[in-house]
Amino acid sequence: QTAFVCMDVDITARKQAEASLHASLREKEALLKEVHHRVKNNLQVITSLMRLETSRTEEPSVRRVLKEMQGRIMSMALLHETLYRSGVFARVDLARYLQQLAGQLFRAHETPTGRVLLAFDLDAVQVDIDRAIPCGLMVNELLANSLRHAFPDGRSGEVRLKLRRLQQ
Q1: Range 99-123 burial, b when 16+ CB lie within 10 A, else e
Q2: Cβ atoms within 10 Å of 135's Cβ, excluding its own
Q3: For residue 108, what are the CA distances in angstroms to 14, 119, 130, 144, 145?
Q4: Class of residue 33 by CB neighbours under 10 A (exposed 0-12, middle 13-18, buried 19+)
Q5: Using H for helix, E for strand and C for coil, what is the string for the chain?
Q6: What are phi and psi of 159, to 5 degrees?
Q7: What's the first-to-final CA gap in the chain, in angstroms?
Q8: Backbone CA torsion sign across 137, 143, 146, 152
């Protein structure tokens, strides 16, 4: 005795729904990428306007505040550029972002070559954008203060940026 069971299921609707979901996901990823790109560009425009204002004023305290604000804004712009270039919007390679941020900050402070060295000791750490922004702002402040106050009278030295992953 042989028994056969035959079943016929039309999966056309399911396949169409899957294709629609994939298309929607690609559209949302493209839109998110465009948003990060526009945010980065807008932040860079704001920084450029602040740079113009800095060059127009002779007041040292105003110039200092404007330069500090430029650094903060550029740290956020760099994060959005990092997200835009990577195409991954849920997580940020914090070590790479902080390395780029520190290098950008050293260039902006026009630190004489060889006088103040920048050293990195960074673990690979992935964080979401809500954690990366405050980290970038804190590192920006710490490095800016180090460059401004830790090496008076042309002293040389080293600034070390260290990032460790906590074991959980």
Answers
A1: bbbbebbbeeeebeeeebebeeebe
A2: 19
A3: 55, 17, 25, 10, 13
A4: middle
A5: CCCCCCCCCCCHHHHHHHHHHHHHHHHHHHHHHHHHHHHHHHHHHHHHHHHHHHHHCCCHHHHHHHHHHHHHHHHHHHHHHHHHHHCCCCCEEHHHHHHHHHHHHHHHCCCCCCCEEEEEEECCCEECHHHHHHHHHHHHHHHHHHHHHCCHHHCCEEEEEEECCCCC
A6: -110, 125
A7: 60
A8: negative
Residues 6+ away with beta carbon under 8 Å from 67: 54, 108
Q: How deeply is 140 buried, as exposed, middle or buried, from its count of CB atoms within 10 A (0-12, 13-18, 19+)?
A: buried
How many Å apart are CA 139 and CA 135, to the nearest integer?
6
Q: What is the pTM of this model?
A: 0.73
Mean per-residue pLDDT of the chain: 88
Backbone angles phi, psi at 75, to 5 degrees: -65, -35
User: In this structure, what token pair is assigned to residue 14?
Assistant: 């399911």
pLDDT digits (tens, 9 = 90+) for 82-126: 887 887 778 899 999 999 999 888 888 776 667 888 999 999 999
